[in-house]
Amino acid sequence: MRKMVTICLLSVSLAALAQEDPAKPNLGKKVVEKAKSTGENRTEQTTDKVVNKAGDKVDKAIDDLLDGKLFKKKKKKPTEEEAAAAKKKNSETAESTDTPADVAEKPITAPAPTAASGKFDFVPGDKQLFFDNFDRLAVGDFPAEINTNASGEIVTLNNKPGKWLRMSKNGAFVPDYTQKLPDNCTIEFEVGINGDPSNNYSGFGLNFSTSADELMKDMFFGKGTSILYLHPGASEASIAILPTNGTEINNSVAMPQWSVKNGTTFVKLSLWRQKGRLRLYLNEEKLLDVPRFFSENTTYSFAFFRSFFNECDVYLTNFRYAVAGADTRNKLLTEGKFTTNEILFDTNSDKIKPESNNIISEIGKLLTENAGVNIKIIGHTDNDGDAAANMVLSKKRAEAVKMRLAYGFGIEETRIQTDGKGASMPLNANKTAEEKAINRRVEFIKL
């Protein structure tokens, strides 16, 4: 008899989970059809745990059934510490009630990119394509450059500077300016959440797709799409790669950097695309590095989406989109050679200009992380001036780069050889200003 009651209990429980909820019509469908979202996986895992523990708790389940309590949700009275913490969190993320006067449109100045340091090896793109902090918009407006099937508005927050885009309902947000992404580019923005979204549904999504029709989705994506799911309610980040041909890839990692449970509700997010590779950083800490995230040999476009179970608001600001340099580490380590025009010098001098710091930093980190790699640095000039003087200058410039690596990053000088070719190895006719700029380059060769 007891076994029969247990089976009945489990059957009723599973049926209740699969039943459609009119208030949230997608929940039952996700559980039954096993849709591709981390929220569904968590629901199935929870169901498994219920099944595994049913035998241990059968007596209590029978009593609850007889008392009519089986499907009633019991509320747990919070402790004084929990109540105080909840009150503090709500005050931190509450929207300001002050509505400023309409803000006149004015040019937007983006903050200078931060150079990579330590384990934070992100290098912001140097050619900015778009920046928006929504300062030009009045509170209550919605950016005209973003298409959506959901809703949102510009707001201010009482404990955060500037203006924010509030994404208040589940759906997709498609910026006009992130269509046809370059092979090498970076995307940076600040994002936050207000409220507890639960650990169900997909979360805050970053959708990279080869099809425009897929950009307006927040679930059930088609082939040719790669997705990042960031779920602060579950403290988890996930990827889903849906190739046109081949095997679908799914993976998840812990995400303590953006976690409602940990009280970290706002985070700085940085994305770096390098052809097929995608790196994700949260608060200057690398979280994901996926070598074949972009699996299609065609153009990708980008959109946000949000898919949370409970009511909550998602905020976003300081969006910066830029073209990045070549993948220095990959080229030098795998191809054995890397050439750059990003190391600049004063005219007729071996003095390195400050704007060269980003690329030198990349090389320095590569040599620091790969102690067995030795290199040769070769300087090249254009054909202006005396050929013999250019030969000497190119060698001095190569030596200057070596010294910057040695003293700036602690690289042993014995690991670096130098040489200069002057204007003897041009890449073009060396006639126009553009051609001369291409010939003024620094070459790195793996020995």
Question: What is this entry, summarized?
Answer:
This protein has 447 residues and is of the alpha+beta class. It folds into three domains: 2-67; 95-323, Jelly Rolls, CATH 2.60.120.560; 328-446, OmpA-like domain (60s Ribosomal Protein L30, Chain: A), CATH 3.30.1330. The chain has helices at 2-18, 26-33, 38-53, 58-67, 80-93, 328-335, 357-369, 387-409, 433-439, and strands at 127-132, 146-148, 152-157, 160-167, 171-175, 184-194, 203-209, 225-231, 236-242, 249-254, 266-274, 277-282, 286-290, 301-307, 313-323, 337-340, 375-380, 416-420, 441-446.
Overview of this structure, please?
- The protein has 3 domains: 2-67; 95-323, Sandwich (Jelly Rolls), CATH 2.60.120.560; 328-446, 60s Ribosomal Protein L30, Chain: A (2-Layer Sandwich), CATH 3.30.1330.60.
- Strand 17 (375-380), helix 8 (387-409) and strand 18 (416-420) form a beta-alpha-beta unit.
- The model is unreliable at 1-77 and 89-118 (pLDDT under 50).
- It has helices at residues 2-18, 26-33, 38-53, 58-67, 80-93, 328-335, 357-369, 387-409, 433-439, and strands at residues 127-132, 146-148, 152-157, 160-167, 171-175, 184-194, 203-209, 225-231, 236-242, 249-254, 266-274, 277-282, 286-290, 301-307, 313-323, 337-340, 375-380, 416-420, 441-446.
- Strands 1, 3, 4, 6, 11, 12, 13 and 15 form an 8-stranded antiparallel beta sheet that branches. Strands 2-5-14-7-8-9-10 form a 7-stranded antiparallel beta sheet, with no helix packed on it. Strands 16-19-17-18 form a 4-stranded mixed beta sheet.
- It has 9 helices and 19 strands.
- Helix 7 (357-369) packs across helix 8 (387-409).
- It has 447 residues and is an alpha+beta fold.
